Amino acid sequence: MRKTAIYIFILxxxxxxxxxxxxxxxxxxxxxxxxSGGTGVGTTALSFKLPRVPxxxxxxxxxxxxxxxxxxxxYYIIDSPLSPALKLGWYCGxxxxxxxxxxxxxxxxxxxxxxxxxxxxxxxxxPDAASVELFLEFIPAVGFLVSDTVGWNYTLGAALGVRLWxxxxx
Length: 170
Fold this sequence. Notes:
The protein has one helix spanning 2-17; strands at 25-36, 39-49, 56-63, 67-83, 88-102, 107-114, 117-123, 131-146, 150-166. By secondary structure, the protein is mostly beta strands.
């Protein structure tokens, strides 16, 4: 058991030291969907990552018959290359999501812990140029929902996104 814990610790330190995502500003679009508490859901989100802040952010909203706003923040615990030659990597992290929905007759608030698990691919670019990342992720989440009642909520989601990485000036 002790050896297993040491191996897991070394793996986490190694992947944190050799993280694969660029160090610039990341801006992108994400299309997602999934199953949440008995209902199918679909969203479009804006994705952003700021330099020197170790959190990947997403914000999704709707102005249709139901207004909702969700903010997701994910920290990638593992961010490693699968195939450096193909610019293919994978990540697994821990995150938090908070949301607000305004229905005609009620208001709902949600908060959940999430685990993003994904693949990312970078289109080759020149060293000083911006790069483009395509990513696919699976995102299970569990939390609570407050509306007329308070209860547990879960989501099994997936997303496909594209992110433009711009080099930040030092």
